[in-house]
Each structure stands twice: as C-alpha cells, then as structure tokens.
Sequence to fold (291 residues):
Amino acid sequence: MREGGNQPVVLVLAGSIRLGYAFKIMSTRISKFFALLAFVATCLCGSAQRAAAQSTSAPKPEDTEIWQPVPKVVMAEVNQAAPPSDAIILFDGKNLDEWVSAQDHSPAKWVVHDGVVTVNKAAGNIETKRSFKNYQLHIEWKVPENVTGSGQARGNSGVFLASTGPEDAGYELQVLDAYKNSTYVNGMAGSIYKQSIPLANPCRKPGEWESYDVVWTAPIFTADGSLKTPAYATVFFNGVLVQNHFELKGETRYIGQPFYKKFDSAPIKLQAHGDPSPPISFRNIWVRELP
Fold:
C-alpha cells in the first residue's frame, strides 16, 4: 500500500466530526432561542393575567367621580315659593305626619322646631307616606352657619326623587354645601348624583336658605321589567336652571354604574347622611302630581 493511502478516510472522519460539532452548536442555539421565546411568552401571559385581574377588581367610589369642568358660580335672589292651590303639602313647619322612616316605615324621628325640620342622623333616612310618579316638587334646605368639614363631608344630604328601597336606593338629587367647597362636580349640590354635573353653581353661604324646584318624570317599564322610557329630571336651584330635562341612566349609586330596576310609583326620600358635620334643615316642602 502506498504511503498516505488512508488519507480520504481520515478526511471523511474529520469532516464528520466538524459537521457533528456544527449541528451540536446549532441545536444548542435553537434550544436557547426557544427557551427565550418561552420566557417572553410567560412574561406576556403574566402581564395579561395581572391586567385582567386589575380590570376585574372591586369597583371604587373614585371610578365614577368627575372633577372637571367646574360649573360657573352665579348669584340668585332669595325666592321662597308659596304652594299653589293644588299642591300636596309634605311639610309646613308643624309636624312630620306625611313622613315615615325609610328603614321600617315607623313614624319619622327627625327634629321639628321653629317651623323647620332638622336631620336626625341617628334615626336614618325618612320618606313620604305617599308614592308618586310624575310631579313638580318644591323643597328648601339650609346648611348650618357653623358647618364644618370639606368636600363630601360638609353639609351632605340628598333628595331622592324616587325611593326604591331603604338606605340610599333610588334616584338622588344631591344636597351639599357648594359654597367655596371643592369636591367632584358630579357630586356637588345640584347634581344628579354621579350622573350629571349642574349647569351652574348658585349655592349661597352656609346659614342661608336654598331652594330646589324639580320636575320629575318617572321611568316606564314593560311587563317583563325591561325599560320602556327612562327617567328625566329638570331642576332649578335658587331659581337657576341646573338640570335641563336630564335623562337618567338609572338609579344613582355611590359605587359602580347606574342601572334601572322596575317600579311603579315611589316615595320621595330625604337622606340622613353620616358625615360628621352638623345636620342640615328643611322647610316648605310641597308636591304637585302631574300626568
């Protein structure tokens, strides 16, 4: 045999070794690439899960607060409205015969004195004995001159234009000291609570009487409980239009979105809010039923 006769075999073996080594390197790199892809996918999946968890977390009051734009401050003259001849007198300064506890329908336990009724916060909300559908309402209210606190904790109460249950179930027109008192604007005086910002702010100083004149159109439901036509509210605050035939989205809620649930007629409710400020007072409350 000639010298070097096995050279082709050696070359073939060497080539095979180099090729195997190249495949090994390539396999390693591919494995690392897929491992990286798996890591990225895991991260993305975790982010998606966290986002989903956040989106399904419990709702908060702040979710439905609006702070801008702030309604313009306007001045209005004092205008105490005498009830018309066909009005139903709900409070004339003498007694609470037309009212009951909203919790258990026992006699209302708010404090009547000097021609006004003052909220008894410990006794809870009160509502009318009678139920109403569509009506015109006049009501006057006063934040005490010595009011304390700020924001929603300053002279807070509410007029529920239709009370659909105890506590704060229903459709609320907000009562609050709005004189130089900053809060979310869909929760200030004259607002349909958490739904409609008032068109202006005619609120007077604490210690002065305010008035609401309201035209309320109740919602209509079909036989199966679905909504046929929504509720509407027009509100004059100290004679100034602040809600212009506003279409309500449903019952007003402190937390969460509004909704409708079927009812026929409903009482008018006044709120005993639990904020620590001194209680507010009401007077001259009357209503006219409308078709």
